[in-house]
Design goal:
alpha+beta; 73 residues; 2 helices; 30% strand
Length: 73
């Protein structure tokens, strides 16, 4: 079974759009054109990991939805 994550985008987001292009089912454009998560929890996937790792300002973090353990960064 896939791991469920609670993903957040913090206020350092510069709206590069990388996460929205990489995992559009998880990230969308929010207020002030910054990225927001469409809803938690999300299923851990290669695309979600790539979106988190590719954020140029490291504004995305994730915790395991069951254990609250930090998963990223």
């Amino acid at each position: 079974m896939s791991k469920s994550l609670n993903v957040t985008v913090d206020s350092t987001c510069i709206s590069s759009g990388y996460c929205r292009r990489t995992a559009p089912e998880v990230f969308t454009e929010g207020p002030n054109r910054t990225s927001v998560v469409t809803g938690n929890p999300v299923t851990d996937s290669e695309q979600v990991r790539e979106a988190m790792e590719g954020c140029p300002v490291e504004a995305i973090s994730a915790v395991d939805a069951e254990t609250d353990e930090q998963v990223f960064p």
